Amino acid sequence: MPRSYLSTVAVLALATALSACASSRFDAGPTRAAARPSARALPPEEPILGAPGLSAGPVTSAPLAPPPGASASPAEVAANPGGPIVAEPAAPPVQQQAAIAPPPPPVTSGGRSGVVGGWTARDATGATCRVTLSSTPALDLYKATSAGCSNKDLAKVSAWDYRDGEVYLYQPGGTVAARLRPGGGGLDGALSKSGAPLALAR
Q: Model's pTM, two decimal places?
C-alpha cells in the first residue's frame, strides 16, 4: 500500500481514539457527582420544651386580686382586666374652723406708747367727743387736745401722763381732769370733779 494511505488511516484512528476518551470523560462527570454523598439535611427546628421559666401549656390571663385593705368593684375589674385594682385612699374630711378674730392687744402692752393716738370719749350722758393723746412732751407731761366735747372738764384737757398703769388727763395749771385705767382695748375711769364715769375707745 502507498505510504500516504497508511498515514491517513493512522491519523483517523488516532482521532477516533481521542474522541472516545473525551466522550468517556464527560460521561463520567455526572456519575461521579452523583456518587458524592449529599449534604445531610438538618431536621426542622422544634420548640424547646422544658426550658426554665417556659411553659408548654396555653397562656391565660386573669385579673389580680386587690392588695390587702383595698376593695374593687366588678366595674373596676372589668375596666382593668390585666392588672391589679388599687383603691385610692379616701381624703380625710376637711374641718372648716371659723376664723376667730384675735382680740385687740391690751393697751398696757406698750405702756405709755400704747395709749398714744386718737380716742373717742363717752361720758355718763352718752355724749361723745374726740381726745388726742400726743407723744410730744410738755414740761413733765405730754400734750393732749380735745374737740367737740360738751363736758367742760373734757373740753379743757391740755396734757396727759401715764403713771402706775393709769392714764391721767390734765387741765391747764396741772389740775387732774380724769383718771382712767387700760382694760379691754380701751380706757375706763371717771372724771375727777364729778366722779361721773368716763370711757375712751379707739
A: 0.47
The kind and range of the H/E element at 200 are: strand 197-201
**Model confidence pLDDT, tens digit, residues 9-39:** 666 767 676 665 555 554 544 444 444 544 4
CA separation for the pair 41, 4 (Å, rounded): 62
CATH of 107-201, one of 2.40.128.10, 3.60.15.10, 2.40.40.10, 3.40.50.720: 2.40.128.10
**All structural domains of the chain with their residue ranges:** 107-201
- Report the distance separating Cα 158 and Cα 114, nearest Å: 19
Average pLDDT over residues 28-55: 49
| Span between the terminal Cα atoms of the chain, in Å | 169
